């Protein structure tokens, strides 16, 4: 009898539950940008008073399920947009669909929430910075990552030298850079591993920057040890524009962007635009740089189905320049050359890159997200440099040529699904990636005056494949606690054909590496969130190293961790602080300027990062980034274990102004402290403190701009190296600081017209 009663009770209970759920309703919808009519992702959608929060997906969609029939207030908020509150009533068995358009508005820091929902994806700092400090030149693209410093030492045409988290990253060895998901870094490059030239990006088209420091993101593989950054270009133009810029030192620049489809396209959820940039400058060096750069980009975005977006991007870039190279301290002190002079005035280069990028994003009716991306680049590079002058060849000098022709193509795909188990939410992502680089005539030669080849040092063809699979799980255990765990497997096949060997030889090597990740997030309340990031990453070595080592130790691992906190102690104050650690394994380094392999031992880096964003008034914002690092070699004696040129303390900050009267601007500083230039710290790279200013006055149809780099006209060294060199006529070589001078006071005026 008791069993019968229990069964009856269970049946009645199940029926009651089914009846209850049968009468529950839903709220769903899509959020658009009113100016472009494009969907907005990561918009915060909150059911006021209930504590339920959702973020819009790739197609701007959101959904709340199992809601009791009742009135609801739905609040929509997004950085840089006016918040919107909608009151609606959900009935039994009813799904309400809301179509919301958000209007651009001045940033209010009080709107920013420290959210537990998808904490792993939060980009609070970058979202604020990109809105408050619009990028005005190509260098600012990289500087938008807090703590990242750059140095240019080739007249503006060569990729910048990058510094981050105690790394001298050279031109990109330990930071993974992408644009709209397409790789920027060039593996096994003629000049250096991971060479990343971002000059094919038109600054005015950068919409946002996603970044993370450390090797903690599952879908980011090779080179993502110090961190990664993905630059997102604008999907659509809200207006067509033309911009003219003129500055000191014979500097001229013209940029234009044309909206091709206009309102008719927006009505069909389509957009297309064509943009171009041309730059010319002789720069501030004694020898005119004759720097020329041309960029052309076209982009189309539209729907190929009810739930699928297609984005097609095509671009081409060309640049040619002369540069003054690095000069030794003694040459300036002796009067042989002045601060902006050169030892070998025939240095320079030429480069080009053409890109095709296709991205498909599908969100199924069950909210599964499928992403497919195909990309192709044709790349050409030729660089003439002279770092040691007459050290090796006392008659002709030591000028070298580095040259390559490259085809790069690849695929990136992922599938994500979300499930609710009890009160937990599980977001599962699996992905596949493939990249192949094929170079022709990767060259290092001894040359004279950029016209005469004296001696070929290296010449060969590279064929390198990187294939990867990964799985990532993000579990929101409670409304406050979430866990992210991931695992990726990378496979490399490297091939190098040595064209100078007799007979011509081809060597191959393969290796694989497994990289686990584990990240924990705990949100105390909407004002405080703690996180612990841990993970293993790696950077591949040059194919010439890989084949020379027969595949041994060619994928040095990096193990890192971050312990951090995001705090909003006041409505208008946001703080992000982290203590971090990174350990790197033995690696073999290919020195592109010498054509030799140099082993370097294990290393350890640790430090503190602090970012503060504060809204002083409705129009005035302040920010500061403080970054410390303690980089050391683990296989050298104390006092001999410094890592050359690795930054130990950096800081950036400033004030930004945005008024409703059209006046905006910023006053910014950047500071890099003294740092060791060699292993025993007997040669020191001197630090610098530089300030920049930007002022804009905007009306409906035009914007006037004035920018000034190095406002105080400080004399500073932008890049520095401890190099052994011999000047003409010197009896013996000397090792000391060789530097490229930083820009003096440099003012530019601009006029932008909109229609």
TrEMBL record:
An MF annotation (GO) of this entry: siderophore uptake transmembrane transporter activity
Organism: Spirosoma foliorum
Protein name: TonB-dependent receptor
SUPFAM superfamilies named among the record's database cross-references: Carboxypeptidase regulatory domain-like (SSF49464), Porins (SSF56935)
A GO biological process held by the record: siderophore transmembrane transport
Entry-linked InterPro entries: Beta-barrel_TonB, Beta-barrel_TonB_sf, CarboxyPept-like_regulatory, Plug_dom, Plug_dom_sf, TonB-dep_rcpt-like
Ranges where the TonB-dependent receptor-like beta-barrel domain occurs: 307-711
Location(s) in or outside the cell: Cell outer membrane
GO CC aspect terms: cell outer membrane
Family label: Belongs to the TonB-dependent receptor family.
Domain TonB-dependent receptor plug: start-end pairs: 123-227
Membrane-related topology note: Multi-pass membrane protein
Keywords on record: Cell outer membrane, Membrane, Receptor, TonB box, Transmembrane, Transmembrane beta strand, Transport
Gene3D superfamilies linked: Carboxypeptidase-like, regulatory domain, TonB-dependent receptor, beta-barrel domain, TonB-dependent receptor, plug domain
Pfam families registered for this protein in UniProt: CarbopepD_reg_2, Plug, TonB_dep_Rec_b-barrel
């Amino acid at each position: 009898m008791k069993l019968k009663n229990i069964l009856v009770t269970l049946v009645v209970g199940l029926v009651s539950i089914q009846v209850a759920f049968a009468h529950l309703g839903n709220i769903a919808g899509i959020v658009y940008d009113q100016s472009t009519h494009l969907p907005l992702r990561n918009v915060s959608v909150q059911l006021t008073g209930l504590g339920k929060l959702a973020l819009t997906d790739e197609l701007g969609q959101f959904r709340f399920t199992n809601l009791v029939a009742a009135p609801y207030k739905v609040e929509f908020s997004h950085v840089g947009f006016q918040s919107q509150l909608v009151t609606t009533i959900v009935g039994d068995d009813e799904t309400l669909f809301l179509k919301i358009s958000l209007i651009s508005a001045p940033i209010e820091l009080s709107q920013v929430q420290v959210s537990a929902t998808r904490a792993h994806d939060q980009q609070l700092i970058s979202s604020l910075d990109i809105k408050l400090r619009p990028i005005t030149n190509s260098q600012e693209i990289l500087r938008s990552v807090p703590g990242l410093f750059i140095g240019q030492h080739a007249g503006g045409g060569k990729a910048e030298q990058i510094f981050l988290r105690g790394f001298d990253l050279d031109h990109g060895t330990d930071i993974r850079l992408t644009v709209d998901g397409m790789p920027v870094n060039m593996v096994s490059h003629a000049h250096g591993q991971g060479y990343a030239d971002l000059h094919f990006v038109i600054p005015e088209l950068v919409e946002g920057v996603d970044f993370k420091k450390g090797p903690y993101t599952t879908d980011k593989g090779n080179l993502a040890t110090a961190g990664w950054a993905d630059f997102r270009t604008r999907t659509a133009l809200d207006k067509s524009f033309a911009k003219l810029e003129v500055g000191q030192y014979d500097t001229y620049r013209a940029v234009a962007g044309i909206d091709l489809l206009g309102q008719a396209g927006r009505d069909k959820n389509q957009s297309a635009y064509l943009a171009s940039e041309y730059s010319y400058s002789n720069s501030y060096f004694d020898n005119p740089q004759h720097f020329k750069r041309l960029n052309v980009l076209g982009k189309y975005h539209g729907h190929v189905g009810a739930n699928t977006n297609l984005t097609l991007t095509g671009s081409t870039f060309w640049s040619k320049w002369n540069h003054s190279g690095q000069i030794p301290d003694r040459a300036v002190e002796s009067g042989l050359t002045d601060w902006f002079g050169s030892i070998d005035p025939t240095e320079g280069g030429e480069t080009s890159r053409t890109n095709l990028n296709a991205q498909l994003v599908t969100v199924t009716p069950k909210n599964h997200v499928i992403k497919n991306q195909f990309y192709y680049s044709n790349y050409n590079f030729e660089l003439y440099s002279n770092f040691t002058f007459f050290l090796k060849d006392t008659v002709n000098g030591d000028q070298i040529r580095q040259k390559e022709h490259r085809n790069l193509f690849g695929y990136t795909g992922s599938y994500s699904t979300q499930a609710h188990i009890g009160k937990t939410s599980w977001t599962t992502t699996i992905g596949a990636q493939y990249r192949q680089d094929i170079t022709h005539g990767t060259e290092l030669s001894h040359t004279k005056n950029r016209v005469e080849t004296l001696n070929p040092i290296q010449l060969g063809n590279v064929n390198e494949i990187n294939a990867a699979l990964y799985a990532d799980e993000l579990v929101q255990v409670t409304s406050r606690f979430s866990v992210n765990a991931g695992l990726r497997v990378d496979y490399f096949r490297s091939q190098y054909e040595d064209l100078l060997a007799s007979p011509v030889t081809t060597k191959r090597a393969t290796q694989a590496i497994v990289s686990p990740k584990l990240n924990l997030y705990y949100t105390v309340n909407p004002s405080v969130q703690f996180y612990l990031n841990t993970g293993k990453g790696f950077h591949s070595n040059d194919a010439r190293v890989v084949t020379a080592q027969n595949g041994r130790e060619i994928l040095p691992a990096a193990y890192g961790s971050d312990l951090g906190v995001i705090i909003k102690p006041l409505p208008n104050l946001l703080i992000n602080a982290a203590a971090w650690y990174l350990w790197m394994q033995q690696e073999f380094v290919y020195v592109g300027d010498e054509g030799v392999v140099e082993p370097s031992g294990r290393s350890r880096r640790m430090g503190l990062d602090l970012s503060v964003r504060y809204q002083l008034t409705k129009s005035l914002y302040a920010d500061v980034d403080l970054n410390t690092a303690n980089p050391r070699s683990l296989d050298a004696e104390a006092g001999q274990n410094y890592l050359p040129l690795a930054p130990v303390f950096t800081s950036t900050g400033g004030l930004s102004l945005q008024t409703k009267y059209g006046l905006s601007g910023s006053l910014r500083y950047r500071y890099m402290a003294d740092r060791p230039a060699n292993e025993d710290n007997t040669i020191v790279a001197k630090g610098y403190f530089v300030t920049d200013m930007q002022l804009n006055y905007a009306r409906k149809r035009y914007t006037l701009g004035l920018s000034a780099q190095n406002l105080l006209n400080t004399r500073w060294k932008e890049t520095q190296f401890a190099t052994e060199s011999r000047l003409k006529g010197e009896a013996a070589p000397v090792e000391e600081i060789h530097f490229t001078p930083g820009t003096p006071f440099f003012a530019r005026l601009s006029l932008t017209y909109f229609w």
